[in-house]
Amino acid sequence: MTTPSLEIRGLAYAYPDGTQALYGVDVTIGRGERVALLGPNGAGKTTLVLHLNGILHGGAGTVRVGGLTVDPADRRTLQEIRRRVGIVFQDPDDQLFMPTVAEDVAFGPANLGVRGAELQDRVERALAQVGMLEAADRPPQHLSFGQRRRVAVATVLAMEPEILVMDEPSSNLDPAGRRELAEILRGLEVTLLMVTHDLPYAAELCPRSLILSGGVIVADGPTAELLSDEALLRAHRLELPYGFDPAFFARR
Ligand SMILES: Nc1ncnc2c1ncn2[C@@H]1O[C@H](COP(=O)(O)OP(=O)(O)OP(=O)(O)O)[C@@H](O)[C@H]1O
């Protein structure tokens, strides 16, 4: 059996002010899976994600990424963990700060010591994966929001991550941008964990979903099944748009 991309065991965490955000979370995500992390506001989704690369730590439990345990005390391990866990934040402008798209995509791997033809190759591959190769020499601020989000994905892909974590990937995208990003994400050969309130997007992209509520995983299973469970959705403040059939994508 191959090593899972992500293994979380007994993860519990309270913020310094005493707010308990996670109460013993267990999750395993296999290599190449696409999984949606759903849950109401304040459920603990961001807190969970920030544990994947050691930004938050100090509570109970363990997180392993591709078999490597997140250990914030070990700087070398942490550097490797941060390469393995590629987080694409909601606002692409938090991730793009160089004069050109290519320099933004090169920034991460160059920091790891990748140089010359290999660096060039990584940049081109990552930009091609998100359909942005033609924009390589453009300043990111001249691109549309949807294009900037795709470049933000490329900056993470250039690190050759074990797991791509996307925070609200569909937010602020127009319908075409939303569909284009879905096609890109579906075509990537990478483990995907997608945090979202957009249930149709979860249904479209992720065969499996987790529902986190009150710091606990309350459901883990096929997305179409979870989203068809009206009582489950209601209990955790999740709502499908009127008329949306959660089984539609499962049938395709
Ligand atoms: N810095 C902080 N200090 C204290 N409590 C916090 C802090 N950040 C988050 N919390 C609390 O931790 C709990 C989980 O919050 P978290 O942001 O992880 O939820 P979330 O599921 O990501 O919510 P949303 O969908 O609104 O982004 C909430 O009760 C929140 O108020």
Task: Provide a concise account of the structure shown.
With 252 residues, the chain is α/β, with parallel strands linked by helices. It has helices spanning 45-52, 75-84, 101-111, 116-129, 145-157, 175-187, 199-205, 223-227, 230-235, 248-251; strands at 6-14, 20-29, 34-38, 60-65, 68-69, 85-88, 163-167, 191-195, 208-213, 216-222. The protein is built from ten helices and ten strands.
CATH class of the domain at 6-91 and 164-251: Alpha Beta
CATH homology superfamily of the domain at 6-91 and 164-251: P-loop containing nucleotide triphosphate hydrolases
Number of helices: 10
**Sequence stretches where pLDDT stays below 50 over 5 or more residues:** none
Bound molecules: adenosine-5'-triphosphate
Whole-number radius of gyration?
Answer: 18 Å
Query: What share of residues is helical?
Result: 25-40%
Shape: globular
Strand order within the widest beta sheet: 6-7-8-3-9-10
Taking the alpha carbons of the first and last residues, their distance comes to 29 Å
Q: Kindly identify the CATH topology of the domain at 6-91 and 164-251.
A: Rossmann fold
Kindly state the mean pLDDT as a whole number? 96
SS class: alpha/beta
Known CATH architecture of the domain at 6-91 and 164-251: 3-Layer(aba) Sandwich
Protein name: ABC transporter ATP-binding protein
Function: Probably part of an ABC transporter complex. Responsible for energy coupling to the transport system. Part of an ABC transporter complex. Responsible for energy coupling to the transport system.
Pfam family, one: ABC_tran
Keywords: ATP-binding, Cell membrane, Membrane, Nucleotide-binding, Translocase, Transport
